[in-house]
Amino acid sequence: FSVLLLLHVISILFLCFQVSLFNFVFLIAWALALPYAQFRPLASSICTVWTCVIIVCKMLYQLTSIDPSTFSSNCTLPGENETKVNLEELKTSVLYSGPVDPAEWVGLRKSYPLLVYLRNNLLMLAILAFEVTIYRHQEYYRCRNNLTAPVTKTIFHDITRAHLDDGLVNCVKYFINYFFYKF
Predict the structure, then answer these.
(1) Rounded-to-integer distance, Cα 22 and Cα 156, Å
(2) What is the residue-averaged pLDDT of the chain?
(3) Single pTM value for the model
(4) How many Å apart are CA 41 and CA 82, to the nearest integer?
(5) Keywords assigned by UniProt (predicted)?
(6) Which residues contact 107 (CB under 8 A, 6 or more apart)?
(7) Which among 177, 147, 154 has a CA at the least distance from the CA of 164?
(8) pLDDT by residue (tens digit) across 6-62?
(9) Is the CB of residue 134 less than 8 Å from the CB of residue 124?
(10) 59 contact partners, CB below 8 Å, separation of at least 6
(11) Cis before residue 78, ω within 30 degrees of 0?
């Protein structure tokens, strides 16, 4: 299980994402680290620190001294000649139905209970901590037993594209190695 986690940790992390400006840092870090394997530990460290920053920011935003209504604003409906969209549809849009909190674009909102609100970030932090633990354990094990790290960074090192059509077992091995990478 641990090797499978290391192989697909990026895909698992992206399942925990919420669309916001905060998560743009994760996208940039992993986009730069994917082509270059030597930058993956750095990207993992950056994402761990950034997840902690997000958690602290979300917790601070819950303070009673922060009132979103003071900086929220209403968007004005466009005139009939200014848009091709039906005005009845625009009235049901989130932008025009009430005040819009700009902090939600960043990734902050008032929420209760706080633990449910922080669930995805805490899950990301746990996965990243687990990844570092496994990575360090494997590195220590290889160093202690004078083993070299596998070149392909896959579970089944002898399975390639040429083995895909050799049978069901080899097909499953290939997909375990490359499913998230290929698809």
Answers:
(1) 36
(2) 81
(3) 0.71
(4) 50
(5) Membrane, Transmembrane, Transmembrane helix
(6) 18, 20, 21, 22, 23, 54, 58
(7) 177
(8) 556 666 666 666 778 888 888 888 888 877 878 888 988 999 999 999 999 999 999
(9) no
(10) 114, 118
(11) no
